[in-house]
Amino acid sequence: ILTDSRDLTLVMLIGPEGSGKHDFANELLQYGKPNTEIISTNDIRKDICGNIYDQTKNKEVFSQVYKNIADKLDDKHDIIYVSTNCRVQYRKKIIDICKHKYDRLIGIVFIRSLINCIEHNPGVDISQIEDNYVELRKRPPHPFEGFDAIITCDE
């Protein structure tokens, strides 16, 4: 996914809390190009709020996400973007920022049972996981959003 040095690539990881996105991102980073960076809402949320589960400063968190992505675009870095990205409008916002600057926009969707997501992330409010799980099932990523490829990862 991130081995062709000629292509500038954004990989958007998509799945509810506890679906394995961060583990996959760290694994992908090991095999990616040297200029590959992970941008994670959890990491930014921890920096801003002191806790990855704190949802009270989402506006500030996502402002920082957009800034970090823009900075990495300017530096010509590949990005692995880790967030739930379960809602179309959030995916579109990132794609709109990146679509004219990246050669490839790849979505990777994590399909895991709801119970496994809940068990894998006990710190998150169950209703939040359920909401994101249902939203992703109702409106999964589609090429019309601007993706060049969509890959599904099952449990």
* Termini separation: 20 Å
- Computed CA radius of gyration, to the nearest angstrom: 15 Å
The helix count comes to: 6
Unreliable stretches (pLDDT < 50, length at least 5) are none
- What is the quaternary state of this protein? single chain
- SSE order: EHEHHEHEHHE
Number of E-state strands: 5
Helix-strand makeup class? alpha/beta
* Envelope shape: globular
Residues in helix, %: 40-55%
Strand fraction equals 15-25%
- Overall average residue pLDDT: 91
Strand order of the largest sheet: 2-3-1-4-5
Largest sheet: 5 strands, parallel
Core attributes:
155 residues, alpha/beta, globular
In words, what does this structure look like?
With 155 residues, this protein is of the alpha/beta class. Helix content is 44%, strand content 19%. It has 6 helices and 5 strands. It has a 5-stranded parallel sheet, with helices on both faces. Helix 2 (41-49) packs across helix 3 (58-74). The longest helix has 17 residues, at 58-74. It is globular. The model has no long low-confidence stretch (mean pLDDT 91).
